[in-house]
């Protein structure tokens, strides 16, 4: 019953304030998208709509310090076939990840095939770490309706590898084969109170079956939403993620902590079966004029950002105790760079602090191309 109450509350919030639920990679890209679509009345193309419902549907390279994290996302479209490849490597923790998504847009039902491989390290107690490797594949079909809504039906296979508790030299494997059903909606270029609003949301149900090659049996629900409100000199962005276990005694744990997952806390500091995370930031553009520094090289779009994250992971009782949720505040700047009037790179720096006693500041800075 409490899950239904939370779900109804969130949908009411979505209906009254969609502008606060988004997270875009850069304020400059968001402004360009708004400027391109504000005055156009014709329906969005299939390719444009897919870019909204599939994350990072474009090429991008970023380098993050002080952790020494390298991220690259490459997108290529040839006719009606699109492919997106992503890779990440963290020099400090030794973590790495790779994923590939392939889409064919010839038919009304859009086939989609994805594979991924992630290796991450998880703190255990106070004196060590363990690792977890997650490998998976997904085959599905997405139907985009004429109204701003879509569905995705898919079959997924996931394999989890961790060190065995009894013998660290051996590997413990757990496998899950599941059917997933996703329902999504979109808000695009809605003008209100001087802002242009946009965003998407997805409601996903997963059911894992104990097949011959699967060890796990559970059912989960995921609710994800992103939205934005853009003005020429200020933007509000946010993201909401909620995962809850509907049935089953075991499901793979979720983790919180680190940049983009409670930025003021340590990496993967918290874990649990259920997860709720809300992130909000505002971008104030201080200067949209170009500042020339060298021949052909100039700064553009200097912006100040404010960040707020709140979240929790755990069992049902822990999730309902809102007084124990974790809060993080941050601030930072973003500076765009042009070379001969062509966007070259974007520099960002931010500082975050957990809203609990005896917590150190977390600094992040890097470059995005």
Bin the helical content.
10-25%
**Residue ranges: pLDDT <50 for 5 or more in a row?**
1-41
Give me the count of strands.
19
Note the overall shape. globular
Structural class computed from helices and strand pairing: mainly beta
Number of helices: 4
Question: Major beta sheet, specifics?
Answer: 16 strands, antiparallel, barrel
- Give the SSE string: HHHEEEEEEEEEEEEEEEEHEEE
Radius of gyration: 21 Å
**Average predicted confidence as pLDDT:** 80
Q: Separation of termini?
A: 46 Å
Share of residues in strands: over 45%
Identify the strand order in the major beta sheet: 1-2-3-4-5-6-7-8-9-10-11-14-16-17-18-19
General description of the model:
There is one protein chain. The chain has 369 residues and is mainly beta. Helix content is 11%, strand content 61%. The protein has a 16-stranded antiparallel β-barrel with strand order 1-2-3-4-5-6-7-8-9-10-11-14-16-17-18-19. A two-stranded antiparallel sheet has the order 12-13. The longest helix has 15 residues, at 2-16. The model is unreliable at 1-41 (pLDDT under 50).
Summarize the structure.
The chain is globular and about 65 Å long. The protein has helices at residues 2-16, 27-37, 46-53, 316-320, and strands spanning 60-65, 69-78, 81-90, 96-104, 109-124, 128-144, 149-163, 171-192, 195-209, 218-231, 234-247, 254-256, 270-272, 274-287, 291-294, 297-314, 326-339, 342-354, 362-368.
List its traits:
single chain; 369 residues; mainly beta; 16-stranded antiparallel barrel; 4 helices; 19 strands; globular; disordered N terminus
């Amino acid at each position: 019953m409490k899950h239904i109450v939370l779900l109804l509350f969130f949908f009411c919030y979505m209906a009254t304030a969609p502008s606060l639920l988004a997270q875009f990679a850069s304020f400059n890209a968001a402004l360009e998208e708004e400027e391109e679509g504000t005055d156009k009345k014709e329906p969005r193309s299939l390719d444009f709509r897919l870019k909204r419902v599939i994350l990072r549907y474009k090429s991008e390279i970023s380098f993050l310090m002080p952790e020494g994290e390298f991220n690259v996302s490459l997108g290529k479209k040839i006719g009606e076939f699109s492919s997106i490849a992503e890779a990440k490597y963290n020099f400090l923790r030794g973590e790495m990840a790779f994923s590939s998504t392939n889409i064919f847009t010839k038919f009304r039902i859009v086939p989609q095939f994805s594979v991924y491989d992630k290796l991450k390290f998880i703190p255990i107690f106070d004196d060590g770490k363990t690792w977890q490797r997650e490998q998976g594949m997904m085959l599905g079909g997405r139907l985009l309706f004429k109204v701003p809504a879509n569905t995705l039906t898919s079959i997924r296979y996931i394999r989890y590898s961790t060190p065995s508790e009894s013998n660290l030299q051996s590997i413990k494997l757990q496998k899950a084969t599941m059917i997933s059903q996703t329902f999504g909606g979109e808000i695009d270029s809605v003008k209100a109170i001087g802002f242009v609003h946009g965003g998407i949301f997805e409601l996903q149900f997963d059911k894992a079956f104990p097949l011959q090659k699967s060890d796990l049996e559970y059912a989960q629900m995921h609710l994800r939403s992103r939205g934005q409100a853009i003005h020429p000199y200020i933007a509000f962005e946010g993201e909401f993620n909620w995962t809850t276990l509907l049935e089953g005694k075991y499901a793979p744990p979720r983790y919180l902590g680190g940049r983009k997952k409670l930025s003021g806390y340590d990496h993967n500091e918290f874990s649990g079966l259920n997860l709720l995370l809300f992130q909000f930031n505002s971008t104030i553009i201080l200067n949209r004029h170009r500042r020339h520094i060298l021949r052909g090289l100039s700064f553009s779009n200097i912006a100040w950002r404010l960040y707020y994250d709140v979240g929790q992971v755990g069992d049902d009782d822990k999730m309902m105790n809102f007084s124990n949720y974790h809060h993080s505040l941050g601030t930072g700047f973003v500076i765009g760079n042009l070379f001969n009037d062509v966007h070259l790179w974007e520099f960002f720096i931010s500082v975050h602090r957990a809203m609990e006693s005896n917590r150190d500041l977390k600094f992040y800075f890097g470059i995005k191309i």
